[in-house]
Amino acid sequence: MANGDLERGGGMNGKKRPNSYHHHPPTSPYYVEVENTEKQWTSWLVPMFVVANVAAFVVVMYINDCPNNNLGFEGSCVAQFLGRLSFQPLRENPLFGPSSNTLEKLGALEWKKVVNGNQGWRLITCIWLHAGVIHLLANMLSLVFIGIRLEQQFGFVRIGLIYLLSGLGGSILSSLFIQQNISVGASGALFGLLGAMLSELLTNWTIYTSKAAALITLVLIIAVNLAVGILPHVDNFAHIGGFLTGFLLGFVLLLRPQFGWVGRQHLPAGARVKSKHKAYQYVFWVIAMVLVIVGFTVGLMMLFRGENGNKHCSWCHYLSCVPTSKWHCGNK
Questions:
Q1: Where are stretches of biased composition, namely Basic residues (predicted)?
Q2: Residue pair 254/199 in contact by the 8 Å Cβ criterion
Q3: What are the beta bridge partners of residue 15?
Q4: CA 127, CA 249: separation in Å to the nearest integer?
């Protein structure tokens, strides 16, 4: 990897070029539920995701085999006592990880290969690859703190779908706007979980206490993390794509019954029973479902037609990098 190569970055055929990465979101805020009589699930899928990511990283490092493949131009391998699991020189990859060529070979997202090489599977495989130990630990800690709580509340099916589809949404948007670098990482999926938390709070607004404080806290966390994306070498398009996907899916998949529905069986005979959901929840559901379908359809059509999103939006590149006197954005 070239200088500053973190997540969402890499090079081809040994040539250096600017790279970008995903910044990991922090832990989630906690807000108190008024009526907590719904089923609590046992979280097993999120821990399995963590295991899968760690296992994938070990396999990547084994195949990378720095001692036998490092040409020495950037220095010696790091932690050589690990044998073929040792890391690339820090000048090449400061995150303690493999080379860009290894990531590219094993499924990193690369626009040319997706569009011209018919390798659409890279939109998914890139989510399971990480640029280094630091990158992996940051994302997995975020996944544990955010994902386990959500899975306990909503079950593995819904949270698994949000995670995977948000990762895909982030990959699609990233490919439309950043077409010069390879890309890896789970941050789009993690931002999707944050987006789902926000829409879940909004659509189930009436059943929570301390909801204003929870909303402010959650919005601040999301805003700060998206703001980090304007720095160089950070792929904010993957963050934004993942967040928007998760935000919409939260309206579709994370509806809760309104207050009083869960305990309806304890009401006296003849008592008026409320409907399971409020009218606005159904309105949000329909709008979000339409936007998800349209968004994925249009995004995939544009991607496989070879469209460059920057030609349709001349200012959008500022969403991912804002040049200053301190740094340049290059071809991010």
A1: 14-25
A2: yes
A3: 12
A4: 18
Q: Is 317 helix (H, G, I), strand (E, B) or coil?
A: helix
Tokens, residue 114: 């997706």
- Residue 236's SS3 state is helix
User: Could you give the 3-state DSSP secondary structure of residue 76?
Assistant: coil
Give catalytic residues, as residue numbers.
Answer: 187, 239
Burial bucket for residue 303 (CB in 10 Å: 0-12, 13-18, 19+): buried
The two three-digit tokens of residue 70, written as one number: 């490092």
Read off the pLDDT of residues 116-166 as tens digits, 9 standing for 90 and up.
999 999 999 999 999 999 999 999 999 999 999 999 999 999 999 999 999
Q: Could you give the CA distance from residue 89 to residue 94 in angstroms, rounded to a whole number?
A: 8
Pull the structure tokens for residue 133.
């130990």
DSSP string across 281-299? HHHHHHHHHHHHHHHHHHH
**Is 207 in contact with 35 (CB distance < 8 Å)?**
yes
Question: Tokens at residue 166, please?
Answer: 């948000």
Cβ-based neighbour number of residue 284 at 10 Å: 20
Per-residue model confidence as pLDDT tens digits over 70-114: 887 778 999 999 999 999 999 999 889 999 999 999 999 999 999
